[in-house]
Amino acid sequence: MTMINNTSINKDDSSLVMAHMWVAFVSLFVGGLMGLLQTLVRSGTLTLPFGIGYYQILTVHGVILALVLTTFFIIGFQFSLMSKTVGMSNKQRDSAWFGFWIMLFGTVTTAVTILLGKASVLYTFYAPLKAYPTFYIGLALVVVGSWIGCFTNFRQLYVWKKKHKGEKSPLLAFMVVINMLLWFIATLGVAATVLIQFIPWSLGMVDTINVLVSRTLFWYFGHPLVYFWLLPAYMAWYAIIPKIIGGKIFSDSLARLSFVLFLMFSIPVGFHHQLTEPGIDPVWKFIQVVLTFMVIIPSLLTAFSMFATFEITGRKKGYTGLFGWIKGLPWKDVRFFAPMVGMIAFIPAGTGGIINASNQMNQVVHNTIWVTGHFHLTVGTTVILTFFGISYWLIPALTGRKLTAKINTLGLIQTIVWAFGMSIMSGSMHIAGLLGAPRRSSYSTYGGTEQASEWIGYQIGQAIGGSILFIGIILMVYIFINMVFLAPKGHEEFPLAEVSDDAEPTPMFLENWKLWIGITVALILFAYTIPFIDIIQHSPPGSPGFDMLIR
Amino acid sequence: MHLHKYEKLWLIFGVSSLIVFLTVLGIGAFYKGMHPPSHLATIDPQNVEAHEAFKEENLGLRQLDEDKYIVSVIASAFNYNLGKDEDGASVNNIRIPVGSTVVFQVTTTDVVHGFQLAGTNVNMMVEPGYISSLETEFNKPGTYTLLCNEYCGTGHHYMAATVEVYQP
Question: Which ranges carry the Cytochrome oxidase subunit II copper A binding domain (chain B) (predicted)?
Fold first, then answer.
């Protein structure tokens, strides 16, 4: 009954995933080009033609990379994992396609609004700057489309569990469901502010908006958003890379435990993005800072598991000595090398994150370009290099082609180009930020102060780094096109790792969904109920919209 | 659930460092009173002049005591209103003697702005409906750039002034 084909998952599912990948890679190119233009403008060497605004391209850059590229890649990748581990029925595939088209329609609606210059409000769209209503409506559709993806994934695991009573769910399916639960709970906040506050206000149905409420709802979503980006990278680290390096998963239960902890501690923490804001009680800010730091525990678990896998695998291959096992890792295999460089970048990236969230210390770096440098290491290096690392086997596995030795080498070069360009760009951003240079600002001499003149050199550094990164993007887009159209036909492995024989059996309580969701909701209610009521009770008069300031 | 012996050591070390770290932050915040700026006072954003601090004549620098000053600022796109000088021109530079304690109180009449004095710890969000406030001590002479670090519209990057800390 099986049709002969080279794809690693069935053809219909492959088409679904590839549709998501197309949107992701087109976004990578467009968003990357905008990033390049920004660094050139900021260095003082370029003026944008045709009346295009700096803040317009900054809005495109943020929306298309942080919201569109990530969401489409992640949902597509997760569908491939679900298809591989628990399968996908025709009905489920239809609903997945339905979600995809809604997200795409929303994306196009928002993109057109930005390109017409009516929504230069950046991807955080802080009120009371007011965009044209279709900007918010488009974003709402992206979220709604992604919810269809969520419920499709939930349904897939549910159906599998019913057929496999008493068995633990496949590790990757468990991880996908955790990430989608996290996404669903988090997006309730942004959906609430967009549907209840922004859309009626931008349509003129109400005159004013409650600014602090909208910001609080946004950041209730904004922090778990970054974990929604990170967890798919962790899926690859935990359950795919061990296979690529010829090893096994160190411990199934620790992997699940760390995902559960991420679910619990990534949401009740949004105030650490609002530390320098008026109107929020500093005691609650501190409580959320403490909760923020709880994610360090699953991060430590992950670091340990990864390096344990690396060391055990290296030693099994016969490499000895304290660090000799490092030689046993396949450094010339881009499927390992790219995510590994991403992992190494997570050391400075995570350290910077700890600094940012450190309560009063946030004042030193808040809204300086240090923060931009920080998230270009986290999402722009750790996450994206892991996503590239996934693409090198996923795309050929979906298109029924092979990752050739040539493309493997080009991928190694791409990774090095990326790491080099990012070190220069992010490094310059970190230093300039410590000297006080602000983020989200076009080229300015600030009235000719000496301080501002010191920043220019670092802004030129950012342009150099940004240009190198753009070369990296061109390479990656070429690699994508090669893997879709040009590479020879063949069978590319979909690498799923097995759990080590030495690992202890996984206790069943790790699949007690009611318990984990219950604790997550309880923590959110604890962290937000009192301060949120406080914010509403002590609200100042609302703000009318300001749409002329962005034209 | 089983944990490897080294993993236990690793986690004990990590979690203990975390506890020490958070304790230090907590002591800084609650015992030393170094909270991040979290002023709770509200104001009508469309009528800020009704508030004593933001009346035309009270804007800019005022001396309260021998070495204590207050600076009241109205932020709006794309300008910080620091009051007027004797000739009636807008003030764009504030001069403060070194060693002074200064309270900044800032509000906005339109959108969200930032209030950052580059090279110092003066850095806070300014949001419509709220008064942002923080106190600082200037111990190092020099010219500091006051700038808006939250996007507020097309002219956002032109929103700037200077604070000059001088040796009297």
Answer: 66-168
* SS3 labels along A7-47: CCCCHHHHHHHHHHHHHHHHHHHHHHHHHHHHHHHHCCCCC
Does A277 sit within 8 Å of B156, measured CB to CB? no
Of A438, A450, A507, nearest to B147 by CB-CB distance is A438
Domain boundaries, chain B: 1-35, 48-166
What CATH number is given to the structural domain containing A535?
Answer: 1.20.210.10
Overall residue count recorded for chain B in this entry: 168
Confidence band of A108 (pLDDT split at 50, 70, 90): very high
Contact status, residue A65 vs residue A469, Cβ threshold 8 Å: no
The answer to the question of residue A71 being in a domain is yes
Report residue A7's pLDDT band, with 50, 70 and 90 as the boundaries.
Answer: low
Express each pLDDT in A329-360 by its tens digit.
Answer: 999 999 999 999 999 999 999 999 999 999 99
Could you list the active site residues of A? 223, 227, 374-376, 439-440
Instruction: Note which residues in 78-117 of chain B have CB less than 8 A from chain A.
Output: 92, 110-112, 114, 116
Q: How many domains does chain A have?
A: 1
Q: Does B23 touch chain A (CB under 8 A)?
A: no
The percent of residues in chain A predicted with pLDDT above 70, rounded, is 99
Residue range of the domain that includes A336: 11-550
Q: What is the 3-state secondary structure (H, E, C) of A150-199?
A: HHHHHHHHHHHHHHCCCCCCCHHHHHHHHHHHHHHHHHHHHHHHHHHHHH
For residue range B16-39, list pLDDT tens digits in order.
Answer: 999 999 999 999 999 988 899 999
How many cross-chain Cβ pairs, A to B, lie less than 8 Å apart? 230
Residues 6+ apart with CB under 8 A from A258: A234, A298, A299, A301, A302, A305
Q: Do A542 and B123 touch (CB under 8 A)?
A: no
Chain A partners within 8 Å of B156 (Cβ): 55, 440-442
Note whether A543 contacts B: Cβ–Cβ < 8 A. Answer: yes
Which of B3, B28, B111 has its CB closest to that of A128? B111
pLDDT digits (tens, 9 = 90+) for A490-515: 999 999 999 988 888 888 888 899 99
The answer to whether B153 contacts chain A (CB < 8 Å) is yes
Look at residue A6 in the predicted model and tell me its pLDDT.
Answer: 57
Is residue A2 in some structural domain? no
Q: Does A512 touch chain B (CB under 8 A)?
A: no
Q: Is the pLDDT reported for residue A425 higher than 90?
A: yes
Query: How many CB atoms lie under 10 A from the CB of residue A97?
Result: 16
Q: How far is A301 from chain B (nearest CA, A)?
A: 7
CATH of B48-166, one of 3.40.50.300, 2.60.40.420, 2.40.10.480, 2.40.30.20: 2.60.40.420
